[in-house]
Specification:
Layout (H helix, E strand, L loop, with lengths): L6 H20 L4 H5 L10 H20 L16 H4 L6 H19 L19 H27 L5
Helix pairs in contact: 1-3, 1-6, 3-5, 3-6
Length: 161
């Protein structure tokens, strides 16, 4: 991880760090373990978190920032939380392929743009710039990596990075 440098490099470095951290939290588990929801009052699973962040990557970079007309991952009009709910619909390889594609596409969407550049679309009344999107994505990953940490510990006792 980058400890110094310009703002762009630092934001990009932190986002990359959390993207990788989420995958590390899932490393070594089988599909059935990744689907487990060990907190009985929650729909969260590790696989659901990967699917959710895939959806979030596409939403903020492709749909909001560039205003591309692309379908969202996993959710449907009848199930906005399909990323968490329908964890049986795809195998792990497909979920990871979607995740890596979404991350690569997000990076491509941001490349060559200024952090002050406003998104071409808005989220309701909220108009954001690319800097805000990066900060939001870092916050979202950090929060969900915390969830992943707890879920992983409940599944097999593994803790740490």
């Amino acid at each position: 991880m980058l400890d110094a440098g310009n703002e762009w490099d630092q934001l990009d470095s932190w986002l990359s760090f959390y993207r990788e951290t989420l995958l590390i939290k899932c490393d070594g588990l089988g599909l059935d373990q990744l689907k487990q929801r060990p907190v009985v009052t929650s729909r969260l699973s590790l696989l659901g978190l990967i699917r959710h962040m895939t959806k979030v990557e596409r939403y903020w970079f492709e749909i909001v920032f560039l205003a591309n007309d692309v379908p969202g991952y996993y959710s449907t009009p009848g199930d906005k939380d399909g990323d968490y709910n329908n964890v049986d619909e795809l195998g792990l390889d497909e979920v990871l392929k979607n995740y890596h594609n979404a991350v690569a596409t997000s990076d491509e969407c941001a490349a060559g743009h200024n952090l002050d550049e406003l998104a071409k679309s808005s989220r309701g009344e909220q108009v954001v710039d690319l800097r805000w999107i990066y900060l939001h994505m870092i916050e979202e990953y950090a929060r969900h990596c915390g969830h992943a940490d707890i879920i992983r510990e409940l599944i097999d006792g593994v803790t740490g990075y």
